[in-house]
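Handoff note, outgoing to incoming analyst
You'll be picking up this chain. Sequence as last confirmed:
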Amino acid sequence: MSVELPKELATNPLCKISPHPFQSPDFPSIKTEHFKPAILEGMRQQLVEIKAITDNTATPNFENTIFAYERTGSLFKRAAGILGNLSNSDSNDAIMELEDELTPLYSNHSDDIHFNPVLFHRIDTVFQDKAQNPEKYEYLSSESRRLIDITHREFKLAGAELSEADRTTMRRYNEKLSSLENKFAQNLIKISQTDGIIVTDVAELDGLTEDEINEAKETAKERKLPEGSYVITLFNTTRNPILPNIKNRELRKRIHETSTRRGLQGEYQQGDIVYDILTTRAKVANLLGFENYSSYQLVQEMAQTPQRALKMLTDLVPNVMNNLQREAGAVLKRLQRDVPDATAVEAHDWEYYAEKVRAEEYNVDPDSIKPYFEFENVIENCVFFTMNKLFGITFKKRTDIPTQFQDI
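Most recent structure output, in case you need it:
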């Protein structure tokens, strides 16, 4: 159904379907101030659309309930989706402040939908009817039949069958979780923008390319550090991609240790936030009748249970450990040529000396391999090539679609 848009939002680019191919967002026209009014209006419209479903006196079926629900919230999903994209790829203080304000509203909006008893009754009616009379639904595509199952499961796992008192408790948990998880994500961004390893002697960067050194110098300049400073930024993993190239062992150690302590100290330490997230998630799972959060989360995934997920991982351990022990011996021998008194391979040594072993024993030159793994090369000459060979899909660059960044 179509819901009338308030006149004051008529010029908001988020409030109208994009005129560009595939309805691609009109990034040049979208400003941060457009998001809040568009998202609030999107929430209002979705609730109006859902009321039309629950006011329908006709017997619930796929078209008037499942498909109708699937089509609700187009404005909300569009505006929130674009904001999420910007937050993940190009966040700033204004976007973070907006997320702080909107995150609890997202949670309440979701609960308003999933705790709507009339809506869930209609969805459950269709689900039960399909289970008891599957022949009635053979006219639907397999995707549509699966949509019935997915929608029903979505509502059950959100707490649609909880008592009124438990729904109130769940609302409190959901709002707390949404704020905690938003804070955690924002802290990760701030850590990446402020943390890092400061180097004041360029000789310590021996092994890096000229481009990598210039990038470290530029980062230091952006952070307004003294002339002659260099900053090695942290990545979302303890395996920093420059570790195999840094010759200075003490610097490698600093990089690794700083990476492993990321979020455990300083202004944006995450320990208390992680604890609160884990305990609140456990309460959510228990309220829904699950033993733990893993059981709740995995019921939606292929593994289905924590036991099956763990088995998949533990089945890999014997072969992994055999390979690791074999490689560790070779890496330790190579390390001892530089550090004779070394008795074990430290974490910060592994990548560096593993590359040395590969180069010496297998004649593998990392620099000769790197061009094959450059982003553009991987996408165009690997992914696109494979898709063409397997499925006959061809890819052509489009210049008529506005993008978020000029280099996209």
